[in-house]
Amino acid sequence: MSAIEVRGLCPIKGEITVQGSKNAVLPMMAGAVLNNGITVINNVPRIQDVFCMMGILDSLGCSCVLDGHSLTIDAAGLSRFSIPKAEMEKMRSSIMLLGALLGRCKEAEVYYPGGCMIGKRPIDLHLMALEKMGARIREGQGDEPLRASVPRLRGTVVDFPFPSVGATENAIFAAVAASGKTVLNGCAKEPEIVELCRFMNNMGASVRGVGGDVLVIEGGLPLHDSEFTVGGDRIAGGTYLLAAAGAGGEILLTGTGSQGLKTVTSVLKQMGAAVFEEEELIYLKAAGRLSAASIKTGPYPGFPTDLQSVMMAVMSRARGISTIEEKIFESRFKTANELQKLGAEIVIEEDIAKIQGRPLLKGCEVNAWDLRGGAALVAAGLMAEGTTIIQSCEYIMRGYEDICRDLSGMGACIRYME
Asked: Which residues are catalytically annotated?
């Protein structure tokens, strides 16, 4: 399957239970290597990034079995600390294994991560945190790997100048394995970080301050076998809410906490959609064109950068001029070129996009350049007259278990093409 076909202007109405969270389960899989035993994770989405991480863990000597949506990781056989370059380049989440391997093996050998083409991915904050705990880092030149080693990780105080999700995750892993107390200041507060902390505590770690920007970790405690259930994917849920809002539909979303999507639902209300929220339920109804709005992406609880592209698609049909200020990834606007092929009027000026809404978009052939940009093009296809073909849909499969199944179940005319 290399493309998705969408026939637009079909009513979207129905109920959907969101898949397990991609951005929560991947760091949990990395954290599982800290336990010299078995970890079971439930509600795991069957997506390409999960399969890729399973392959990496298998290459390190672990055993991974995904039965339905239950993943069993046996890390007792972990025998290697070096990840091949080809595996690292498949997704950026692979960098989370740096702190976990350093904690388990006292050594790690990795390459710079890959994944979607959404901008630079500096890992300076990751390395700063690990070095503060005693790690010696040697960055490779050219095709050489980055090597980290440490006789013994030790607790310390780490001050993050920016709430980086990945750096926070790597620091948590290293701090759990370190001797003594570690205080992490300026941590990311995303719901996925909260889940990771609970996951580690369920394994026997001691992480306090969960949900805040200061985490206190008592390191060196013995870890044990555990079982944990991942929450719903707020980004997938947000994608479906935005798609329904843009196409003019009615949707009942369950399986993910509404708190993690407060910024998104707040903007949708401003744009004219009717939204009702409970703790684990969101109802949305949108009739006709929405009104323009302005957003700025930012760390949680700001507007999630992962939903910026999908929001841009929705704004392409809104009444008036909308603006988006992208403060996280400088190349998130790459999808704008594809939306313009559908008739969207978008002007990019550095990190700000101005979108003049159009009454109607026209279906055509477009290309997905990244995971969330691909989802945005699917949403745009639902709003467009005629047929839209999204090429390179393998990007979409990295994060959505089955976007065609989910949307067609609510009345959308969408299918995979061979």
From this structure: 116
Query: In a 10 Å sphere around its CB, with 0-12 CB exposed, 13-18 middle and 19+ buried, how is residue 18 labelled?
Result: buried
Cα 34 from Cα 54, distance rounded (Å): 15
Domain ranges of the chain: 1-18+231-415, 20-225
Provide the CATH number for the domain formed by 20-225 in this structure: 3.65.10.10
Render pLDDT for 50-100 as a digit per residue (tens, 0 to 9): 999 999 999 999 999 999 999 999 999 999 999 988 888 777 778 899 999
For residue 124, say whether it is annotated as part of any ligand binding site: yes
Q: 1-18+231-415 is classed in which CATH architecture?
A: Alpha-beta prism (3.65)
> What is the helix (H) or strand (E) element at residue 335, kind and residue range?
helix 335-341
Average pLDDT of the residues of the chain: 94
Per the CB < 8 A criterion, the answer to whether 297 and 311 are in contact is no
- Omega before 301 cis (within 30°)? yes
Q: Is 122 annotated as a binding-site member? A: yes
Confidence (pLDDT) at 327: 86
Pull the structure tokens for residue 336: 């704008």
CB atoms within 10 A of CB 323: 16
- For residue 145, give the nearest of 61, 89, 93 by alpha carbon: 89
Please check if 159 is assigned to a binding site. Answer: no
> Which tens digits make up the pLDDT trace of 123-158?
899 999 999 999 999 987 778 889 999 999 999 999
Q: 361: which 2 tokens?
A: 């978009």
* The overall pTM is greater than 0.85: yes
Same fold yes or no, 1-18+231-415 and 20-225: yes
